[in-house]
Specification:
The chain is an alpha+beta fold and 156 residues long. It has 7 helices and 5 strands, in the order ααααβααββββα. The longest helix has 14 residues.
């Protein structure tokens, strides 16, 4: 763990140390700071807070909010809300899994794309839709997916 990461972790721990049941708050702040929960930070928390590492991972895996892998440069969020689902978003998600060779909650080996599904992007009129970071792509068919991935891969 580098010095800056260590300092960040220390600051977060000190901020929450007086609070009872502070583990969740600490983990939230760690994820905000790093984009995920780095394993060496999880080990550092276990040592410093005197909590078994297994307990920390129990919490991390119980709450889907927490990410155990770096988020990737581009976060692809496929909408699985009702409108999108009925118009075919499961096939968009499957196509992305095939193209990127990842499952939901995973980042591609090159660190470029992170794949997730979400409940509703708030643009049901564009269903089926997905977002890449903050940009929404709507009224998609399965064959549009490869073009979207290629476009972002080129930009990188
Ligand atoms: S259901 Fe997909 S944007 Fe609302």
């Amino acid at each position: 763990m580098d010095q800056a990461a260590l300092e960040t972790a220390r600051t977060i721990i000190e901020k929450w140390r007086p609070k009872k049941g502070n583990l969740i708050m600490i983990l939230h702040d760690v994820q905000d700071a790093f984009g995920y929960i780095p394993p060496d930070i999880a080990r550092y928390l276990a040592r410093t807070l005197h909590i078994p590492l297994a307990r920390i991972y129990e919490v991390l895996t119980f709450y889907h909010y927490f990410k155990l892998q770096p988020p990737g440069k581009y976060k692809i969020s496929v909408c699985m809300g009702t409108a999108c689902y009925l118009k075919g978003s499961p096939s968009l998600l499957q196509e992305l899994k095939n193209i990127l060779n990842v499952e939901e909650g995973q980042t591609t080996k090159d660190g470029m794309f992170y794949l997730e599904s979400v409940r509703c992007l708030g643009c049901c009129g564009l269903s089926p839709a997905l977002a890449v970071n903050e940009t929404v792509h709507g009224t998609l068919t399965k064959s549009d997916v490869i073009d979207i991935v290629s476009q972002y891969a080129k930009e990188a």
